[in-house]
Amino acid sequence: MLLRSSTALTTSLAAVFGTCVSVFMAYPADVKAQEADLVTVRRQIDTLKADYETKIRDLEQRLAKTESNTAKIEAKTDDLAKQPAPAAASGADTKNPNAFNPQISAVLNGGYTQFSQDPANARIPGFVSGPETDLGERGFSLGESELQFKANVDQAVSGQLTIALNGEDEVEVEEAFIESLSLPLGFTARGGRFFSGIGYLNQKHAHDWEFIDAPLPYVAFLANQYRDDGVQLRWLAPTDMYLEFGSELFRGDSFPGANSGHGKGAYSAFVHFGDDIGLSNSWQAGLSYLRTKARDRDLGDSEDDGAEVFSGTSDLGIASLVYKWAPDGNPTERNLKLSGEYFYQRESGNFDGTPLKRDNDGWYLQGVYQFMPQWRAGLRYDRLAADDDLDPALIGTALDGGSGTPQRGSALLEYDTSEFGRLRLQYSRDDSMVGEPNNVVRLQYTVILGPHAAHGF
Amino acid sequence: MKISYAKSRGMAAIMLLALTLLALSSPAKADLKIFACEPEWGALATELGGTKVSVFVATQALQDPHHIEARPSLIARARAADMVVCTGAELEIGWLPAIQHQSANIKIQPGSPGAFEAASFVRMLEVPSRLDRADGDVHAQGNPHIQTDPRNIAKVADGLASRFVLLDQANAAFYEARHRAFSEKWQAALARWQAQAAPLRGMPIAVQHPNWAYLNDWLGLKQVVSLEPKPGVPPSAGYLSEVVTRVRATPVAMVIRAPHESARPSEFLTAQANVPAVLLPFTIGGTPGATDLVSLFDDTLARLLAAKK
Asked: What is the ipTM of this complex?
């Protein structure tokens, strides 16, 4: 545009110049005619002048416009330069086909255990023991190793798989579930196999527990932890105080349920709530309910002899409270964690054909104190009470608790090499089993390889 | 049949309760709700957002931002947030993902516009060439303590202002005007700090934890030794005596630490090698003088200059 305009200008100027030259050359011939000519020429010059003045004004405007456009582009370029290149910001090598691999981590643990009484004969009087609730073996043994895979499937769903390999080389799918990522209004849905959200410890993996073994009520009422195949819906209320509701529907084959038949024999409901008190204190409480149904549930690990069989329902209520203290909310140097849960269970149905209705309960209270970085010490007390009002026909069966109260006291010393490595020494005086009290010493290491999910409360 | 009836009744009751609480909860307010992970980003959000944002700050200066409990109160606040403003670069990896996940809030999930990571707007220092936990608490994307260099604050401000505009276009002109005002104020302060800090250039220092890479880069301080053998690994008595030997051989002007760190290792160095221990605010609220972004750096410089004399 600019170039074409300047060519037009040159042409106009040449025309003016040419006219002037011809005027001077023609002057001597005829003055009158010349004067008339001069008027004409002047008029022509005026016209030309007006013409190129318009053109120059036009050009000036165009030039100004171009200059302001250039400034705008420069400003935009500056803005772009300030922002990091997308590839550099994400830090990921986008050409790497493994970039979409799930997060993989492994948990290893093992140790040494000493029992004063033979652990093979251990049995809690008055309670039917569920599967995998034995005390473990004497001496050195490898604990359960865990392998976890975790990733977002797409914009709507995430998935997680946890495989447990026990010391006897058995492989088990511990958890395998999908979970919603983008439900509105604070809802989260989950489906597959997972640890139930009831209680406080239940949904934590064993390696996240403060003590090496599960508290007695978890052992007696849930065979350590309640886990089954099913669905879960949670809802977080839009309140300043933490308030979460959840409900689950399960297949119902896990202890204390068994052979539920329809494949949807258990359900639960829970509420968790919590808040801070000042800078240094925080707490979380929970109320949970689990109903399971059993049909011909045999004794945990004994052979299938058709004896001591239970059919009926179990209603379990759990009240949980967790309190944490850290000076100014900074747990790095020192911190304290207190937790306790109370379990109440009603079983109704029949045991070996005898009608059964009984109420059992149990609780634990524990505290763990980090007295300096890397070092923690803890104490725990847990106990159970089976209903002592037993039908005479059932005396002598597993439900006969005798006169004693199953109880246990434990002390813990822990040294952490880092967030990813932990050594624990735990002593328990276990008076929860049939026979003499068992003095148990456990030494255990737990390490995490690879990325580890952020810890919940 | 009886069970499934009770079941659906239980589910229905929960849904009804949920919907009632939902109806009772306050209606959406017009302002942008910010969940700031650290005080400096809370202050920056207030500078740029003014009355159009409401800011909740999740941590305070006496807490170590690496180690925060994913407390119920934080989950409840994250549930209501339109945006999380955090350092990123794995600083909050031990707690923020749990909060984001449990908040069930789509707006603040990683990768969404409502998840703002300050570290992605600055040039990272100390990016490790190898990743091995045997090297201590290393961060794959580099040292995450970017807020100790005020030039980084300016860069993050540019990013945060554009993000506010993106999330709340109705108030774009408001955010842009506040951003311009902040930038002018900040450039003037930077020039002043640069002049004040001239005597500090080249000064050898010891640090308690490698928190200060960006401060060193800005002021030209020379970090001679760290009181942690590896980042995040507490010093043993043996390592501390090694540090004393090194400090005697290569004298340092001072040992600096952040308020959330224990005073003991610094005090040990003071007692053994007569090295002055200096507490720097590290973030807003870290010292009584550090009450906003400008006074954070005023106080930092004042403390460094006072200790140098």
From this structure: 0.86
